[in-house]
Structures are given as structure tokens and as C-alpha cells.
């Protein structure tokens, strides 16, 4: 284990990442996960000396692949490190080399081999109307594929709003009877909603599992409390302007340039639970409110209906 | 009749696609492309606030993120008659340019490369020879014997662990893989480097768009990110852009040329006949005159006479898709009445994708169409780069009408558009310097209006058409690149572009149809975009024949 760790640090240094940078990241992740500081070194161990990489099967249903894309934007650890060193990604249609029946074969083998042990990450909603006719893989409906895989998983993570709650295709009139994975299969899933979700929250959930061998604490909607415990509004850097009654009334205005509160432009921060203002997106580069656009409430169930029209204030 | 094979799922694409081909005497003699997912976004849009449409349509696709939002706000702006400020146009061009950089790099390395590069063979490579090869063909910042030893060690631990993950069950060792082990190792190393680079490239979206995927700073009338016109942010964008450009110049293009030099026979495989592009990147308020990538239509490969492309000439056919019988219609009049049925490629219906036609012609869209139109119109940067690539590969111009040409065109425009971004960012900096920070133009929603938004996005020609009624969405239709490319036969039996391109492809082993994947992937299919309509009323059960 010590040797492995040393090798890991050597590799990191070759990539221009010092041990200090790495520990800083582990501290950030530990804090995001809501664990106390004593866990930092154990979080580091998860990356530095992983035991057997836990098998992961990633299923794509009715989706836009934006969630997989968001996962590929993970920059610490980089996506290639997650795939090559942290987890054993047995099936992922967006990046896997095999196609056709060879791909189907991979899925079958993976489920057989890791029965009861793999983590299933799901992306996208499941069509339930017309026997699930609106989406198929290899001639089988999403519902059939889900039923043949998910019951054998140790745990199922619904990554993104579609897998968590149905998402955009479930917006009224929900033509295909789309549902979130948990509801479609009547099981409990760990939900990491967002459109897209932040990869930091997925990594945090996986690390939590590798570290403590259990899953993080969840709210009543199945969302990890470390990420979805507070509203966007409560964590918003523009909150002071709200209290002071300083509001933007038109995009591109002086008030917008001053960074005042977007409440009257339709911001849904007060009714949305997520950690966007704290972790932000793309390696902390920004988040919608920072770019001057109101929050749309994308991590809440039915937000396409309950939060729209998006540019009208409540 | 030849042997029929079905590939489903096609992986390394966005969405759910099935391809069926018939093979006679070792070559594809017939082909069918079938989309396998329905989501229904156009139906969901009915009656909603037109300003919200961009957020719904953007969720058509998280790979081609941003582009539907852009077309949508353009369509509404066209309908309500608002002209956006100069800075908004520049920021939109920069976001779109960043999308091209990101999308094409990911396509080349992560979605397409494994059709040409044998990862397992890379383990046999000599690191010293690989290092030499890299120095010869590129200016890659990564290299040296230790670097390649390290990459190889990483790959082999992975292979030997038996946990092959995404590289499991592929066609490794297939006779159609032509690269020597050293070239495979170099490409495999850059596959991993590009995986990191793309995460950085995507930050350009986050700087002016708040996040990626699904940036959130466009609004009808302009953009919202006025606070990001600060010196720090502009510099951050410039440096991120520069890092990506260096990768494109020093790694992507050299890799493309190195790999292509082993596959020159693919300059004679996978071609189509007609090409359509709406063009993009307005450099003033005037369209299409000021588009940096010009608008145009090529009939029967005639590069001497580039025709004007007009949105009025677009129709969608439903004869071979799972829809009720109906005449071909322009998107303004577009309707969607699904009729679920069996999968009947031979004489019936076989896909959820409609078949768009331009003036009746099946038309390829995408990088090749854009580059050919720009070349035919004499766009200087495209012309120079195409000529230089053709010279370096020692191939004649007609070899561009092919799978190789399509893949090369993607690299060529990544380079040319990427370089042009510098002008846009400098223009933006100039405006800010002169005290112009206007990013939004106020406007009023009319009771009734109609409009369209045309643009050319990484995968090809994209158009959104909207009818506003009582200030709400009355009708909304969009015709997207993968509908053009992956669509089925039209009512006259004319094949869709991918179907046409597959005919004549040599197949070494029908059990491992690697060659089919090469041509299908060269179009960079995006099926979630292609199929976004759905039947809201029918209770019929649709079943597919499992073959």
C-alpha cells in the first residue's frame, strides 16, 4: 500500500501536481462532503491507494448525454484517472470501444460477474407508456434493460435530473410517460439532480462509498445532504443585495453590472437546493448567477413545469 | 441477396442508433439507418413562453450543448424583430467557436479514434521509437522515452488487471487496423491528454456562459454576462483559448495527418453527393453576407457553382419513418403524427427520424459540407488549409468526397475557426476599452409573429422555426444536422446521406463490422438531437422485431 502511494505521488508530480495541491483538493472534497478534517488523509488514501477498483455500470436512457459530459469535465481527479484508476467502468456507451452485440455482451458479462457488488450509475429517464416503447437499446426497451441490470446492483445512483425525477421529457404533457429511475422501478436511488449535475457531487458520493463503505446521508428526495442541504439563495454571494433591496430589473443594466440580486428576473434560488454557489462549475470557473442569469431551479423535481416561465418572478 | 447484419447499439455517439447493412461479395450493398429514441420536446413546447424555448431545446443534447439555445434565441429574435448589440454577437461567436473546438477534439480522440487506433497494439510499441515518431510528425509538448514508458505502463496495468472497462470487447487486432504499434501508442497517449484538455477547453463556456454543458447566459435580445467583460475574465478566456489552439495546431492536426497517411484508401470510401450549409459566425449585423463560414448548397459535387441556400426550400418527408402518411412539408407547417409499427427496412417504415430534403435532394451537412462550400466560394483561410492538407497527404481534391475527407474537414475547420476566434476576442476587448459594454437590447413580445434561426453547428446545418400566437408558442419545429445525415429514405426511395455513404464499403469480417463504424462515426451522429418529437395521443403499442 505504501509503495502504491509513493508511485501515485510520483505520477502526480510528473503531471505537475504537487502533493500539497493534491491535499488541498482532498480537503476541498472532504469539506464538500461535509466530513470533518480528520477524514482528509483517508480521502487522500482513496485516490492514492485504491484497492480493487469498484465495478461501475453506467446506463443511458432518455437523456441528452449532458450528464456524462459533465462527468468528463471533472478535472480533479481527471476523468481518465477516474476511469483508469478509481473505478472499474464496465459499461458506458458514450466512451466504450465496443458496439453492437459485442457491447451487449459486455453488459451481460459485467452484470453476471459483479452481481450484488457493482454500482449502477443511471443517466436519463425511463419511458413507461406503451410498454416503454419510446426508447430502445439493442431491441430491448429501457425498462427491460433497467430491470435486467438494476436489481443486481449494490446501489443505484441517479445522476442528473432526468434519472432522478424524469427531467425535460417528463415535462407536461409528458408524451412518453417518462419517469425517474427510482419511480419507474419502485426502488430507492441516490439522486444527484441538476441539469447538468456537478461532477464534484458524483465524485463526492463515490469517495464517500469507497471511504466509509456506505452511502452519504440523503434528504427526503434521495439527495445527498452534503450537496443539497441548503438553498442556492442561502449560499448566494448576491444574498446581501437581496437583503438590502438592491435588485436587477433589466438584463445588461447598470444594476446587472453591479451584480445585484436577480430575484425579479425570475431567480429560483430561494426554492432550489444545491451547492452551485459554493462549488461552481468547470473547476470553479462560474455558475449561472455569476454569469448574470437567474437560477432555473434545475435540481428540483418537475422544475420544467413548476419553475417556468423562467423569466417571471414568483 | 447478401448477408444482413445489424449493429445496435452503435456506441461512441450521442443517443440510441441502429444501423443495418447488407453485404454482398465483401462490400456493403445496401444500408438502413434507424433512430431508436423519442423524447417529444416540440410537443412539450406548445403553449409555453417563447423566451423559455431555448432552455428546453438545449436539452436536446448535452454534447452539442449551446447550439440549440443559440438557434432558438435567434428564431425568437427574428420573430420579434430585435437586433442584438455588437458585444452580444461577439460573445455568442466566442461561445460557439469554443463549442467547435471542444466538440471536434472530443469527436476525433474519444468518439472516432478507436475506429482507426488499436489500443492493444500500443502495448507492443517501442517507447524510444514512439518518441522519435512524435518528434518527427508533431510539435507535441508531451514526449520522450519516459513519457511513453509511463503511458504504456498505465495502459498495461489496466489491460493486465483484467478490468478492461470501456476498452472491453472491441475489435482489437482487426485486419483493417493499419497503424504500426508506435503510431497507436502515440495516439493512445494523446487520447488521454485530450481527455484532460477538453475539460479545460469547456471552461471557455463557463467564463461567458456560467457552466458547461448547458451554458446559461443567452437571452432573447443578447447575453447576460456583462460582469464577465472584466479584464481578468477576458484574459482568462484568452489564455484558455490559447492553450486549446496550441493543442489543435501542435497535436490534433499532426495526429490527423499522421493517422490519415495510413488510411488513404478511405479517400475513396464513404462519399455522398449533395451538401448543404447555413453558414455561421456573423462578423457584422448582416446575414448571410458577413458569415465567416459562408452559406451555400452544392449539387452533384459541383464545386464550381455554389448555389444559394434558402430556408424556404427545406421539406421533411415521413414516408419511411413511423409517421402517418403525409406530403412533404416546410418546417413552419411541420406536423408530427406518429404511426407506430414494426421495423420494416425493406419496404416499410423503419425509423423515428424524419427525412429532410433540400429542394428535394438528400443532402449531407456538417464539416465536409461547410469546408466544401467555403472552398468553392474561395474563403481564403479554408482554401489555403485544404490545399495544404491535400498536398501533405498527397491526395487529389476529389478524395475529399469520402470518410477520410469528412474527418479531415473537421480538423481543418477546427483550426481555421479557432484562429478566427482571436479576432473576435480582440474586437470585444476593443469595445470594452472604448467604454462599450452593451450586451442586451430591450424588446417587446408581439401577440403574433413567426421567425427562424439558422446556424451551422459542429455537426451541421441547424434550423429552428417558431410561430408565436397570443405571446405563446403556437408551433415549434427544428431540423437538426443528424436528421439530415441519419434520416431514412424519402418518399422517392432516395437514400439518406449515411445510408448512401455506406454503400460500397469493404467489410473484411461481417462479425466485426469495424468499417461500418468508421463511416457512421465520421458523421458524428447525434440521435437525441435527431429525434425530438413524439406522439402525445396514440395509445398504440410500438414493438420492434428483435433480429
Write the layout of secondary structure elements.
The complex is a heterodimer of chains A (314) and B (547).
Chain A: H1 2-14, H2 19-32, H3 40-48, E1 55-60, H4 66-72, H5 79-86, E2 88-91, H6 100-113, E3 119-123, E4 126-127, E5 136-137, E6 140-141, H7 142-149, E7 155-159, H8 161-165, E8 178-179, H9 181-185, E9 190-192, H10 199-212, H11 225-228, H12 232-235, H13 239-243, H14 254-258, H15 276-279, H16 303-306
Parallel strand pairs in A: 1-2, 1-3, 3-7, 7-9
Antiparallel strand pairs in A: 4-8, 5-6
Chain B: E1 3-7, E2 17-24, E3 27-35, H1 41-45, H2 53-58, H3 67-80, H4 86-112, H5 119-122, H6 127-137, H7 145-160, H8 181-201, H9 203-209, E4 218-219, E5 222-223, H10 231-260, E6 275-277, E7 280-282, E8 291-293, E9 296-298, E10 314-317, E11 355-358, H11 367-376, H12 380-393, H13 403-433, E12 448-457, E13 460-469, E14 472-479, H14 481-486, H15 497-502, H16 514-522, H17 527-530
Antiparallel strand pairs in B: 1-2, 2-3, 4-5, 6-9, 7-8, 10-11, 12-13, 13-14
Envelope shape of chain B? globular
Main beta-sheet annotation of chain A: 5 strands, parallel
Total number of strands of chain B: 14
What Rg of chain B do the Cα atoms give? 23 Å
Largest interface pair: A-B, 89 and 101 residues
Helical content band of chain A: 25-40%
Tell me, briefly, the overall form of chain A: globular
N- to C-terminal distance of chain B: 17 Å
Class by SSE composition of chain A: alpha/beta
Approximately how much beta-strand content do the residues of chain A carry?
5-15%
Low-confidence region ranges of chain B: 532-547
Structural class of chain B: alpha+beta
Helix content of chain B: 40-55%
Number of helices, where a helix is a run of at least 4 consecutive DSSP H or I residues of chain B: 17
Amino acid at each position: 500500500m505504501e509503495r502504491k502511494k509513493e508511485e501515485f505521488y510520483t505520477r502526480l508530480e510528473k503531471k505537475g501536481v504537487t502533493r500539497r495541491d493534491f491535499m488541498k483538493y482532498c480537503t476541498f472534497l472532504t469539506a464538500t462532503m461535509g466530513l470533518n478534517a480528520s477524514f482528509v488523509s483517508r480521502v487522500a488514501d482513496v485516490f492514492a491507494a485504491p484497492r480493487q477498483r469498484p465495478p461501475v455500470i453506467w446506463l443511458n436512457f432518455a437523456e441528452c448525454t449532458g450528464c456524462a459530459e459533465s462527468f468528463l469535465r471533472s478535472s480533479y481527479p481527471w476523468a481518465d484517472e477516474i476511469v483508469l484508476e478509481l473505478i472499474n467502468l464496465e459499461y458506458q456507451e458514450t466512451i466504450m470501444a465496443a458496439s453492437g452485440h459485442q457491447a451487449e455482451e459486455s453488459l451481460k458479462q459485467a452484470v453476471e460477474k459483479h452481481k450484488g457488488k457493482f454500482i449502477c450509475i443511471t443517466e436519463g429517464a425511463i419511458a413507461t407508456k406503451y410498454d416503454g416503447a419510446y426508447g430502445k437499446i439493442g431491441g430491448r426497451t429501457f425498462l427491460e434493460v433497467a430491470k435486467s441490470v438494476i436489481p443486481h446492483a449494490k446501489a443505484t445512483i441517479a445522476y442528473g435530473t432526468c434519472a432522478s425525477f424524469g427531467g425535460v421529457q417528463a415535462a407536461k404533457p409528458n408524451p412518453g410517460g417518462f419517469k425517474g429511475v427510482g419511480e419507474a422501478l419502485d426502488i430507492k436511488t441516490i439522486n444527484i439532480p441538476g441539469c447538468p449535475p456537478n461532477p464534484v457531487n458524483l465524485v463526492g458520493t463515490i469517495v464517500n462509498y469507497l471511504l466509509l463503505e456506505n452511502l452519504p446521508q440523503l434528504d427526503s428526495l434521495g439527495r445527498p445532504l452534503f450537496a443539497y442541504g441548503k438553498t442556492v439563495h442561502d449560499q448566494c454571494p448576491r444574498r446581501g443585495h437581496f437583503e438590502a433591496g438592491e435588485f436587477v430589473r433589466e438584463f445588461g443594466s447598470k444594476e446587472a453590472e453591479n451584480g445585484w440580486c436577480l430575484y425579479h428576473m425570475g431567480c429560483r434560488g430561494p426554492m432550489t437546493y444545491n451547492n452551485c454557489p459554493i462549488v461552481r462549475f468547470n473547476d470553479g470557473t462560474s455558475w449561472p448567477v455569476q454569469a448574470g442569469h437567474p437560477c432555473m431551479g434545475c435540481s428540483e423535481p418537475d422544475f420544467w413545469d413548476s419553475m417556468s416561465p423562467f423569466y417571471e418572478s414568483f | 441477396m447478401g448477408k444482413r447484419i445489424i449493429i445496435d447499439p452503435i456506441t461512441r455517439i450521442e443517443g440510441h442508433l441502429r444501423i443495418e447493412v447488407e453485404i454482398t461479395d465483401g462490400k456493403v450493398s445496401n444500408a438502413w439507418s434507424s433512430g431508436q429514441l423519442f423524447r417529444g420536446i416540440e410537443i412539450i413546447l406548445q403553449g409555453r413562453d417563447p423566451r423559455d424555448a431555448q432552455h428546453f431545446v438545449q436539452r436536446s443534447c448535452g454534447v452539442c450543448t449551446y447550439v440549440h439555445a443559440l438557434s432558438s434565441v435567434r428564431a425568437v429574435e427574428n420573430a420579434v424583430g430585435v437586433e442584438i448589440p455588437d458585444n452580444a454577437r461577439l460573445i455568442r461567436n466566442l461561445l460557439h467557436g469554443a463549442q467547435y473546438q471542444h466538440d471536434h477534439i472530443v469527436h476525433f480522440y474519444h468518439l472516432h479514434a478507436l475506429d482507426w487506433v488499436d489500443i492493444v497494439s500500443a502495448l507492443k510499441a517501442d517507447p524510444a521509437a514512439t518518441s522519435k515518431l512524435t518528434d518527427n510528425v508533431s510539435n507535441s509538448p508531451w514526449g520522450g522515452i519516459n513519457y511513453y514508458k509511463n503511458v504504456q505502463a498505465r495502459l498495461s496495468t489496466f489491460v493486465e488487471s483484467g478490468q478492461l472497462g470501456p476498452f472491453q470487447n472491441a475489435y482489437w487486432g482487426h485486419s483493417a487496423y493499419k497503424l504500426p504499434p508506435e503510431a497507436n501508442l502515440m495516439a493512445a497517449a494523446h487520447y488521454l491528454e485530450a481527455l484532460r484538455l477538453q475539460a479545460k477547453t469547456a471552461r471557455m463556456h463557463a467564463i461567458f456562459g456560467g457552466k458547461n454543458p448547458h451554458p446559461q447566459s443567452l437571452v432573447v435580445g443578447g447575453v447576460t454576462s456583462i460582469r464577465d467583460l472584466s479584464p481578468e475574465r477576458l484574459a482568462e478566456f484568452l489564455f484558455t483559448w490559447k492553450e486549446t489552439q496550441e493543442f489543435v495546431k501542435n497535436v490534433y492536426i499532426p495526429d490527423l495527418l499522421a493517422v490519415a497517411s495510413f488510411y488513404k484508401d478511405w479517400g475513396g470510401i464513404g462519399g455522398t453527393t449533395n451538401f448543404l450549409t447555413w453558414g455561421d459566425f456573423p462578423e457584422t449585423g448582416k446575414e448571410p453576407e458577413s458569415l465567416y463560414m459562408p452559406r451555400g448548397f452544392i449539387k452533384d459535387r459541383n464545386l464550381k457553382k455554389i448555389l444559394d441556400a434558402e430556408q424556404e426550400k427545406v421539406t421533411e418527408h415521413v414516408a419511411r419513418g413511423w409517421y402517418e402518411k403525409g406530403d412533404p412539408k416546410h418546417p413552419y407547417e411541420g406536423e408530427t403524427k406518429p404511426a407506430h409499427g414494426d421495423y420494416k427496412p425493406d419496404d416499410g417504415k423503419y425509423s423515428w427520424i424524419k427525412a429532410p430534403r433540400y429542394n428535394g435532394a438528400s443532402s449531407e451537412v456538417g464539416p465536409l459540407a461547410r469546408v466544401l462550400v467555403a472552398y468553392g466560394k474561395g474563403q481564403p483561410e479554408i482554401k489555403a488549409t485544404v490545399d495544404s492538407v491535400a498536398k501533405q497527404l498527397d491526395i487529389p481534391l476529389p478524395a475529399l468526397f469520402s470518410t477520410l475527407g469528412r474527418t479531415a474537414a473537421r480538423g481543418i475547420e477546427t483550426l481555421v475557426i479557432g484562429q478566427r476566434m482571436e479576432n473576435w476576442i480582440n474586437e470585444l476587448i476593443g469595445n470594452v476599452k472604448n467604454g462599450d459594454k452593451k450586451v442586451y437590447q430591450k424588446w417587446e413580445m408581439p401577440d403574433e409573429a413567426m421567425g427562424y434561426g439558422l446556424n451551422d453547428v459542429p455537426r451541421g446545418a441547424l434550423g429552428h422555426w417558431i410561430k408565436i400566437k397570443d405571446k405563446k408558442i403556437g408551433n415549434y419545429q427544428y431540423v437538426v444536422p443528424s436528421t439530415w445525415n441519419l434520416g431514412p429514405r424519402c418518399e422517392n426511395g432516395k437514400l439518406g446521406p449515411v445510408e448512401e455513404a455506406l454503400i460500397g464499403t469493404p467489410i473484411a469480417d461481417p462479425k466485426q463490422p469495424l468499417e461500418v463504424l468508421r463511416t457512421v462515426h465520421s458523421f458524428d451522429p447525434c440521435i437525441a438531437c435527431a429525434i425530438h418529437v413524439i406522439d402525445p395521443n396514440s395509445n398504440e403499442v410500438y414493438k420492434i422485431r428483435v433480429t
